[in-house]
Design brief:
- It is built from 13 helices and 36 strands.
- It folds into three domains: about 10-90, no CATH class; about 90-340, Thrombin, subunit H (Beta Barrel); about 365-415 and about 435-620, Extracellular Endonuclease, subunit A (Extracellular Endonuclease, Chain A).
- The protein is mainly β.
- Strands 9-8-12-13-14-11-10-22 form an eight-stranded antiparallel beta sheet.
């Protein structure tokens, strides 16, 4: 019998839910996800990994922590009824900027530690009162396109820093002529779960985006996975390579007496044995602020992390990095200047109105409020992707609607491995909600148009649709309970459930859906979270001329009100007339009046089929 396993998503949820509980213990320094270590060798089994300042003893199979009041860490945790093993690794973290005497002597003449013009990523930089860190990369303001240097909060700000403070290059430790070396000012900073990060404007010198000794500029951002190879260029250890060995880590670090302990969301990097670092160190004091780039044989232009800490004492060599998407969203920055945005070719023809035989037009605004809220980019309010199209809300920065086609006869089984969520480069970054909303909480990045619905057609079409489905324009926040076993995936499986008892004409279906915005939606991290979603499913049954339409509304209000508690109560799905969805959304939707649709009427309020509104209280009624 196959061994029962737990999904990566469930592991992440466990870490998010229990991080603070474990980090209250003084000796526990972090909790994250990694591969189980047995007999000093890495296995292929995912586990929950704890790190502690010092292992004291083993007692009856438990890792005993120092101190009378410390609780022992368990050899396993139970997740979804499965006993998941744990690891306890000995290591502590340090985000300070201390520079030891030996290191200073070895690199006293380093070109990374002198004044340079233009300033290039990889050289020494810092707040006027802070020793020295690293200029990570050149970034741009997401609103006005102003260029900045990206580094850490503890490099450009520190506990006494304030917006507008002078920034020097090189850092004060490398050259104490502060007035002479002042190059700009602190613009923005953040210290918290989203990262240890800050940006500075350079006013007295030029900027070059090419990272020192890597000869590549950051053009894109992404998220790393276990086993990914990465590289950074830092002030102290220069170019070093590593391998991602723990993800979804929440680490506790001490940032001085005024700030105290802070929990930082991050991932962990260990040495790459194929490319060992000089003196065995992939990072040292002064490397803080370096950009970690993804490696595909050679360094790429994809930044995945911002280095902010490393090991202390005799702990195994490793580094910690904030997730790049979280940092960029938190600071309101982008990797490319507005005039340098890489515009990708339009993915495809998008939603096809005549896909099921009778024209079923995409939603159109039915109120002035909705019409004026639609995002307009160069005269366009509808944006097309492979097999789907959508319109964006300016106020909410989520799609107002998405319309897509499903060809059940040519669906392909493609993996999502290696595909990252990212913003659509054809639209302004500030008009889209990215990963800043989804980090370290129970919100999932929920697809409006399901990935599985879109991967059909030729292999090239299916592959492109697979990638297109991960643009944040197609994503809205949905509580993770929707997709976990207790919820049975009911929302995403509506189409499948309906078609179990229906003989579809040519296996073709058209679907529309989106959030229902309300003034009462709860605000989380400054973003209003939709409490309800709608979906309309259009199809023709074999042997029939008329189009059948089914409309549904799902509410997740109870779940969103329990974000902090992390409880998983039941949600509710209603089957409703499509005309009612139109009233709730302010969108004109095809309601089943085939003759009117064929004549191309824009207003389609006549309902041919009126489905009695009812609460679907039994899972069996929708998903079998």
């Amino acid at each position: 019998m196959a061994k029962k396993t737990v999904s990566r998503k469930a592991l992440k949820a466990f870490v998010r839910k229990h991080a603070q509980e474990y980090l209250r213990q003084d000796n526990v320094t972090s909790i994250g996800i990694g591969y189980k270590i047995r007999k000093k060798k890495k296995t292929k089994d995912l586990c929950v990994q704890f790190t502690v300042g010092r292992k004291i003893a083993k007692l009856e199979g438990l890792e005993k922590l120092e101190g009378v009041d410390e609780k022992p860490l368990p050899p396993f945790v139970e997740i979804e009824g499965v006993k998941v093993p744990t690891d306890v690794l000995e290591r502590s973290f340090d985000a300070t900027l201390r520079v030891v005497g030996l290191e200073a002597k070895l690199q006293a003449a380093s070109p990374r530690k002198v004044a340079v013009d233009p300033i290039v990523p990889g050289v020494s930089i810092g707040h006027e009162d802070i020793s020295a860190g690293t200029a990570g990369c050149v970034v741009y303001d997401a609103v006005n396109g102003a260029p900045y240097v990206l580094s850490n909060w503890h490099v450009l700000s520190g506990e006494d820093g304030k917006i507008g403070d002078p920034i020097v290059q090189p850092g004060k430790h490398d050259d104490n002529r502060v007035k002479r070396n002042t190059v700009g000012r602190l613009v923005r900073s953040h210290l918290g779960v989203a990262g240890d990060c800050a940006v500075a404007a350079v006013e007295h010198r030029q900027l070059c985006p090419d990272i020192l000794d890597l000869d590549v500029a950051v053009q894109r951002i992404g998220e790393p996975d276990l086993g990914d190879r990465v590289v950074k260029s830092g002030r102290t250890t220069a170019v070093t390579y590593g391998i991602v060995q723990r993800t979804d880590v929440i680490a506790r670090l001490h940032y001085g007496n005024k700030v105290g302990n802070k929990e930082i969301g991050c991932f962990e990097i260990g040495p790459d044995p194929r490319r060992p670092a000089g003196r065995g160190e992939i990072s040292m004091g002064g490397d803080s602020g370096s950009a970690w780039l993804a490696v595909d044989r050679r360094p790429t232009d994809v930044m995945v992390g911002l280095h902010f800490a490393g090991e202390v004492g005799d702990a195994p060599e490793h580094a910690l990095a904030c997730y790049a998407p979280s940092v960029f969203e938190k600071l309101g920055i982008r990797p490319t200047a507005p005039e340098e945005v890489i515009v990708e070719p339009e993915a495809g023809p998008g939603y096809a109105a005549d896909f099921v035989g009778t024209p079923i037009l995409a939603p159109t605004p039915d109120t002035r409020e909705v019409r004026e809220d639609l995002l307009d980019v160069r005269g366009r309010t509808v944006f097309h992707y492979t097999h789907f199209s959508l319109a964006m809300s300016q106020a909410h920065r989520f799609a107002r609607w998405v319309a897509w086609n499903i060809d059940g006869g040519s669906i392909r089984r493609l993996s999502r491995s290696g595909i990252r969520f990212r913003k659509d480069p054809n639209l302004p970054a500030r008009t889209q909600i990215g990963n800043e909303l989804y980090r370290n909480n129970p919100l999932d990045r929920g697809h409006l148009a399901r990935r599985a619905d879109l991967v059909w057609g030729t292999l090239a079409e299916a592959r492109r649709a697979n990638v297109d489905s991960f643009f944040y324009t197609n994503i809205t926040p949905q509580h993770e309970a929707f997709n976990q076993s207790r919820a049975s995936g009911i929302w995403g499986e509506l189409e499948n459930a309906i078609f179990d008892d229906v003989d579809l004409e040519d296996l073709r279906v058209s679907v529309m859906g989106g959030p229902i915005f309300s003034d009462h939606d709860p605000v989380y991290r400054g973003i209003a979270l939709p409490q309800q979603f709608w979906k309309a499913i259009y199809f023709r049954e074999a042997g029939r001329q008329e189009i059948t339409v089914r409309g549904y509304v799902l509410t997740q209000a109870d779940l969103l009100n329990r974000l902090e508690v992390l409880e998983l109560p039941e949600f509710s799905v209603f089957e409703v007339p499509v005309t009612q969805i139109s009233e709730m959304t302010g969108l004109a939707l095809f309601s089943g009046a085939a003759a009117a649709a064929a004549r191309g009427r824009r207003r389609r309020r006549e309902a041919v089929e009126v489905v009695e509104t009812r609460l679907v209280s039994s899972i069996r009624e929708i998903v079998r």
